[in-house]
Amino acid sequence: MASDYSDILEKAYQRTKALNDEGKLATYIPELANVDPDMFGIHMTTTEGLELGNGNYLEKFSLQSIVKVLTLTLAYKILGEKIWGRVGVEPSGTKFDSLILLETNHGIPRNPFENSGAIVICDILISNLNDANKDFLAFVRELSNLPDLNYSEKIASSEKAGGYRNVAMCNFIKSFGNIENDPTEVLDFYFNICSLEMNCQQLAQTFTFLANGGRKLSDQKEIISPSQSKRINALMLTCGFYDESGEFAFKVGLPGKSGVGGGIVALYPHNYAIAVWSPKLNPKGNSYKGMKFLEELTTYSELTIF
Ligand code: GLU
User: Fold this and answer.
1) Does 306 map to a domain?
2) pTM score
């Protein structure tokens, strides 16, 4: 299987690299516009421990919304099923930073991956941890085996300076009573989590726990239960790509999560986690080449959850 994957990855990588990139860099977070638009890296880690990388897979990039899977993981671990009283499990069909459904749903976000849902998850973590910034970072450091991982002050403050929609959203949710803490504290934490950076290799390795029934691959320690892992994967499949989630399931057929930094992580349960990074985004806010690459990968491998 190892050489199968490596041939398939090489073919999908080369074909995608040759494409004309029709995407555009995210500019609403000024710091994100300062990356080299031609970066393109991929890395796969299999549950058997194989590591396969290509292109700029050792360059760090801003995880942005990808990290929302990890905040959800920690909050779900702490709160259990009660979490679903604060945030739903339905795709929104709207843009990642939309406020429109919050009015009709009385401040309960549709899912934990749209911005509103991730902000509520941040609020939950602040209420349940001694020091959310410190404790969440410690959780990710341990999960990723990256003891030196830190929030990027530069990216967090760049987003904070112009994060008017997220500020509006957090205050709006608070008006319905679904934010317990001070909105400024919740937003500062939210901007911090979005600012974490990893390279494709580190990202793929970090997400292997979701391809491994909730257990960290390197030491088999249980991070979350198999049932919780299944549910997070289900949410990634149905809600991981904003209003392009159906399209991703249709064309790729794997659980995954994208971020406006141009990264995507996807996984094939009991087989592998894969990360791809190419910073130019399609009109829905997902990496143009990242989406294409993963489509090629599952087409050539003929392996999807379906
Ligand atoms: N920090 C970004 C925001 O709140 C995350 C968006 C994303 O990656 O989808 O707008």
Assistant:
1) no
2) 0.97
